[in-house]
Amino acid sequence: MADEQKLFKVTIDNITVEVAPGTTILNAARLIGGDIVPPAMCYYSKLQGSGGKCRTCLVKVTKGSEADPRPMPKLVASCRTTVMDGMEVANITSPEVVDARKSIVEFLLINHPLDCPVCDQAGECHLQDLSYEHGVSATRYEFKRRTFDKVDLGDHIKLHMTRCILCYRCVFTADQLTDKREHGILGRGDHSEISTYIEQNLDNDFIGNVIDVCPVGALTDKTFRFKNRVWFLKPVDAHRDCENPKCCGKTVLWMRGDEVFRVTARKDQYGEVEAYICDTCRFEKKETSDWVIEGPRKINRHSVISQGHYVGMVKPQETIVKVMDGRAPKLLMDIHRVSEVNRPEIDLSKIEGPAHSDDFKINGVHPQ
Amino acid sequence: MGRKLLLDKAHIPGIRYYDTYKGNGGYAAAEKALKGMTPDQVLDEVKKSGLRGRGGAGFPTGMKWSFIAKPEGVPRYLVCNADESEPGTFKDRYLMEFIPHALIEGLIISSYTLGANTCYIYIRGEYAWIPEILEEAIADAKKNGWLGKNILGSGFDLEIYVQRGAGAYICGEETALIESLEGKRGNPRIKPPFPAVKGLWQSPTVVNNVETLAAVVPILNIGGEEYAKIGIGKSTGTKLISACGNINKPGVYEIEMNISVEEFIYSEEYCGGIPNGKRLKACIPGGSSVPILPANLLFKTAKGETRMMTYESLADGGFLTGTAMGSGGFIVLDEDQCIVKNTLTFARFYRHESCGQCSPCREGTGWMEKLLKNIDSGRGKMSDIDLLWDIQRKIEGNTICPLGDAAAWPVAAAIRHFRDEFEWHITHPEEAQARNYGLAHYADPREIAVPA
Q1: Could you tell me which Pfam families the record lists for this protein (chain A) (predicted)?
Q2: Would you say residue A3 lies in a domain?
Q3: Same domain for A211 and A128?
Q4: Has residue A137 been placed in a domain?
Q5: What pLDDT does residue B110 have?
């Protein structure tokens, strides 16, 4: 029978797993899970043709297969190499692989601006995670880093090429998810850049997904830029009946109090979206009333976000009123009288672009 | 005089044109193949000849052809790689410019062998004047019944198209070439699948160098066994070498692969020695990607044997003391040349030509160029040499395509053999701006390693 397919036995770091023929080494490792899963910066299981470029997932094949036990001469990209029956792979057990991965991280970082303190991706950045896990603490690169001007790709997306690691994920997304191809790579080598043809706007229903697939802070959501650090926000699962038939309507709202700061697709433990969402859901539905909230979302991948995942949180009881026999405490100073940027009626999430002191003016003048 | 198989008629006036080519025995091999031989018989001759790819890797052509998948109802393609962009290599240009019909005839025979009905010549953009020559030759061949439907009544159809590249070195890598031919960005594909299974438009494809395909013609004319008698061991037949640098007679030479490197450089028949009585310092025998060798390793291998112009002998000693035949771009450096500057030139080239797809090559090539620039301009540090070594080691083998390796090897070999010169540039920054390091000890006889 056709469905009684013979499974291939593959051993990764001495753990054996049986997988269907045609599975890649990376996906076999993901079946095992844990530390032996090679990191992947460019591979994205939902994007056809992705992978093989960043070289962070390099592994050593110590035994080709049962039939041909010769080891492979070079390290191979696990995301694009399919398993053979009896294959043996060394990932973290091979010093050669660990060394190569370290050097790849170094290569990725020599021209990266390392502007994490002002980058919106910080806290959920794959490159940050990768450098923590595999990088070194100092750089040997003593030259000027490559920079590009920031570009607006339409009303909602900001492209900051300086941070880009050229994983091509957004190119594949634009190719495969949206109706017409609008952006790609210009130039070649270390001066190649993601771009649209003559800085054309990216404008169609699903282009916002390029923000979600971007592993670094090169493509960011302009409705969220500089509004908040992701780890101060509370991710909650939510859904709505989206009019767009291709949109699943299942999202994560990133909230503070009742304010919805941003909307993203739901991502799994490898940072890949579970299903794509449309731009209306992502950029325009920023009210809690637009959504049916399901409950807090657990973020596995990024430790800083998990720090505040609000599950089972117990608020300490307010005791002041009790000890003061029911009287409210008298405020000695009202912060809103002295600070012009602290008007409580202004929702940070609603401000167009980064907050500026002008946003807090009343009729053009700062309140005194 | 060495035997000439490819360039034997190169000096006949008008050999570029169909009538002269035909009148001098041209298209005899094509006629022989199409009228009297089955594709398998031709393949057998090519296998017997021991012909190896002339584009750089030296893979046996017959074997490559036998790998092509033959699924029913799927077209097969032959692609001629004329994207000759390696610094130092200009042999294919000569062949295409002066004897275009030799290539066309080779393409007809090869396509017949592979069962390909469409053949593309992918030519580098900078060879702006050659497509016209090729297209004229194709038109003439077609007019005379060598192309089109049912050629010579054999039932075999073939069309040849010339496609110009846009001037990217990377498009000489076979999968990048295929991408470019399909009208896409010339990024190398990740292998497997190999082109023999899924190449051009996802169909089985063979990509061969111009010289390889042209060499099929003499193989059929004289027979595979006769061809295999020329040369030494597994380096059979003749090879075009484009010689340049500090020699008296730069140019394209056809050699039998049985002469020594010393003879090639100093004999009057070939390079004619080094001008102005200068001494030889180093040589890059196969185009910029192959390791550079100092004079004392060039004529004799580390084992003390004479180094011959063959695939095996040039590679003798591996990366430690050997080099490679590569694509036959023979660059000679005399005592006045600076190895640091030369390495910088190559590093700049590879930085500029990296496609930028995978990280080690994209970032590493630029880093190496910057470090070399510092050393060359007298701003280098001693630690830069070790850093360079470390970077090249980390690029090599970790990239999608061989461009990463090709960028790493020249740097590695230069540091391995000429480390003193790099150090001198760092310890004498001002002097290094004013004069070259010179020959130093690079031509001194080496102690011959005794096998343990």
Answers
A1: Fer2_4, Fer4_Nqo3, NADH-G_4Fe-4S_3
A2: no
A3: yes
A4: yes
A5: 94
**Is the torsion defined by CA of A211, A213, A219, A224 positive or negative?**
positive
- Domains of chain B, each with CATH number or no CATH: 18-229 (3.40.50.11540), 241-334 (3.10.20.600), 339-434 (1.20.1440.230)
Question: Is A134 in the B-facing interface, judged by CB distances under 8 Å?
Answer: no
Each residue's pLDDT tens digit in chain B (452 positions)?
678 888 888 888 999 999 999 999 889 999 999 988 999 999 999 999 999 999 888 899 999 999 998 888 899 999 999 999 999 999 999 999 999 999 999 999 999 999 999 999 999 999 999 999 999 999 999 999 999 999 988 899 999 999 999 989 999 999 999 999 999 889 999 888 899 999 999 999 999 999 999 999 999 999 999 999 998 988 999 999 999 999 999 999 999 998 999 999 999 999 999 999 999 999 999 999 999 999 999 998 888 889 999 999 999 888 888 999 999 999 999 999 999 999 999 999 999 999 999 999 999 999 999 999 999 999 999 999 999 999 999 999 899 999 999 999 999 999 999 999 999 999 999 999 988 888 888 888 877 666 55
State residue B452's pLDDT score: 57
Looking at the structure, do residues A236 and A301 belong to the same domain, yes or no?
yes
- pTM for this predicted structure: 0.89
A130 touches chain B (CB under 8 A): no
Same domain, A131 and A164: yes
- A166 and B CB contact within 8 Å: yes
Give yes or no for B318 touching A (CB within 8 A): no
Q: Looking at beta carbons, which residues of chain B come within 8 Å of A168?
A: 357
- Nearest-Cα distance to chain A for B352, in Å, is 6
Nearest to B356 among A140, A141, A188 (CB): A188
Report yes or no: A58 at the B interface, CB cutoff 8 Å: yes
Q: Give the E-state strand segments of chain A in sequence order.
A: 8-12, 15-19, 58-63, 76-77, 87-90, 151-153, 157-159, 183-186, 193-196, 219-221, 234-239, 250-256, 259-265, 292-296
- Give the closest of B353, B356, B367 to A192, CB-based: B356
SS3 letters across B412-446 = HHHHHHHHHHHHHHHHCHHHHHHCCCCCCCCCCCC
Range of the domain at A155: 115-221
Identity of the residue in A100, A165, A166 whose CB atom sits nearest the CB atom of B394: A100
Find chain B residues with C-beta within 8 A of A111's C-beta.
Answer: 363, 366
Tally A–B CB contacts below 8 A.
87
Whether residues A286 and A209 fall in one domain: no
Q: For residue range B30-80, list pLDDT tens digits in order.
A: 999 998 899 999 999 999 999 999 988 889 999 999 999 888 889 999 999
- Which residues of chain A make contact with B360, given a CB cutoff of 8 A? 55, 103-104, 107
Cα separation, B346 vs B340, whole angstroms: 10
A330 domain-assigned: yes
Q: Closest Cα partner for B293 from B330, B346, B266, B257?
A: B330
In sequence order, the β-bridge partners of residue B78 are B119, B206
Q: How many separate domains does chain A show?
A: 4
Specify whether A42 is located in the same domain as A94.
yes
Identify whether residues A124 and A211 lie together within a single domain. yes
Which residue of chain A is at minimal alpha-carbon distance from B352?
A189
What does the block give as tokens for B318?
Answer: 């591996």
The beta-carbon neighbor of A104 closest among B190, B360, B365 is: B360
Judge if A150 and A95 occupy the same domain. no
What residues in A contact B168, CB-CB < 8 Å? 188
A1, part of any domain = no
Tell me what pLDDT residue A1 has.
43
Interface residue B407 vs chain A (CB under 8 A):
no
Taking an 8 Å cut-off on Cβ atoms, the answer to whether A104 and B359 are in contact is yes
Contacts with A190 from chain B: Cβ below 8 Å:
351, 354, 356, 362-363, 365-366
The residue among A222, A217, A202, A211 whose CA lies nearest residue A162 is: A217
| Final residue belonging to a domain, choices A34, A67, A102 | A102
User: Chain B: residue nearest A189 by CA?
Assistant: B356
Task: State how far the Cα of B145 lies from the Cα of B151, in Å rounded to an integer.
Answer: 6
Same domain, A180 and A249: no
> Could you tell me which chain B residue has the CA closest to the CA of A143?
B370
pLDDT averages per 10-residue partition of chain A, 368 residues: 73 92 92 90 91 92 89 91 91 92 93 92 89 86 91 87 92 82 83 77 78 92 88 88 87 88 90 90 89 83 63 71 82 76 75 77 72
Cα A114-A116-A122 angle, rounded to 5 deg: 135
Q: Dihedral angle at the C-alpha atoms of B153, B154, B155, B158, nearest 10 degrees?
A: -100
